[in-house]
Amino acid sequence: MRGSHWRAALAITVVVSGCVDTVGPERAIDGQQLYENYCARCHGVDGRPVPEQPQARDLSNRRIVDTLGDEAISVAIRMGRPPTMPAFRDEFTEASLMVLVAYVRSLSGSPGSRAPDAGGASPP
Fold first, then answer.
1. What residue segments make up the domains of the chain, in order of their start?
2. pLDDT < 50: residue spans in the chain
3. Which residues 6+ apart lie within 8 Å of 113 measured at CB?
């Protein structure tokens, strides 16, 4: 009898101690790191297209970035821009995507989404 009480107490302790852990990411999401890993090979570290990809949008140009809503940037990242920009589809969580979009905006100094997301206005 005594052994079964001890095992039950141990089991309850293990279960309860597992419930006190906090929930959340193991590390902070770094927009710059995401950008450098996924975008910089074409858009350049500073947002200016690399010579090998001159057709890539210049993300350092605020006039261009200001014409895009956050949703439009997110859709471009997820769906790509055929024929040259790959689709990253489910590569990012919503939180990671939001951080990446904010970092893309920071490259041009754009304060945030002012452009309408519906209608897909294409910048010059």
1. 29-108
2. 1, 6, 9-11, 13-19, 115-124
3. 68, 69, 70, 71
Question: Cα–Cα distance between 79 and 81 in angstroms, integer?
Answer: 7
Distance of CA 80 to the CA centre of its chain: 14
User: Which among 91, 16, 84 has a CA at the least distance from the CA of 50?
Assistant: 84
pLDDT at residue 5 in the model? 53
Structure tokens at 97: 């995507």
Distance (Å, rounded) from C-alpha 77 to C-alpha 119? 17
* Contact predicate 47/59, CB 8 Å: yes
Structure tokens that stand for 46 in this block: 């500073």
Q: Which two tokens stand for residue 19?
A: 């419930």
Helix residue ranges per DSSP H, 20-93: 31-38, 40-43, 62-66, 70-79
Closest CA to 98 of 37, 1, 31, 12: 31
CATH architecture, range 29-108: Orthogonal Bundle (1.10)
* Tally of residues, the chain: 124
